[in-house]
């Protein structure tokens, strides 16, 4: 039932942004819009730069996701995957 969990990746903020941008077939420039530069987006995607909360709000709107999703830490993602795997294993027991 929850077999999709096995294929979930634990992603950094930059990796999430890049993955979402590519899923939406957006270029760096399209995501940046008139708010920041494509180079700044590139730095964020490579986890070479930190973002302000205001910029996270902007990016979450552009990518149509919640800020909570973007801010979810690797530890939180790992716990979610672990919890789902436990639930899945209980189904088979």
- How big is the Rg? 16 Å
Helix and strand content put the structural class at: mainly alpha
C-alpha termini separation: 14 Å
Unreliable stretches covering 5 or more consecutive residues: 1-6
Please summarize the sheet with the most strands.
Answer: none
Number of strands: 0
* Residue fraction in strands: under 5%
Going by CATH, the architecture would be Orthogonal Bundle
Tally of distinct domains: 1
Give the proportion of residues in helices: 55-70%
Shape: elongated
CATH topology, which one? Answer: 434 Repressor (Amino-terminal Domain)
The CATH homologous superfamily is called: lambda repressor-like DNA-binding domains
Q: Could you give the order of the helices and strands?
A: HHHHHH
Number of contiguous helices: 6
Give the CATH level 1 class: Mainly Alpha
Structural features:
mainly alpha; disordered N terminus; 63% helix; 434 Repressor (Amino-terminal Domain); 93 residues
Summary of the model, kept short:
With 93 residues, the chain is mostly helical.
């Amino acid at each position: 039932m929850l077999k999709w969990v096995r294929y979930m990746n634990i992603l950094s903020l930059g990796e999430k942004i890049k993955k979402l941008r590519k899923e939406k077939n957006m270029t760096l420039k399209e995501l940046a819009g008139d708010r920041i530069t494509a180079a700044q987006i590139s730095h964020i995607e490579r986890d070479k730069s930190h973002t302000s909360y205001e910029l996270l709000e902007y990016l979450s709107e552009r990518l149509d996701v919640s800020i909570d999703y973007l801010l979810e830490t690797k530890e939180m993602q790992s716990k979610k995957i672990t919890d789902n795997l436990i639930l899945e294993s209980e189904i088979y027991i």
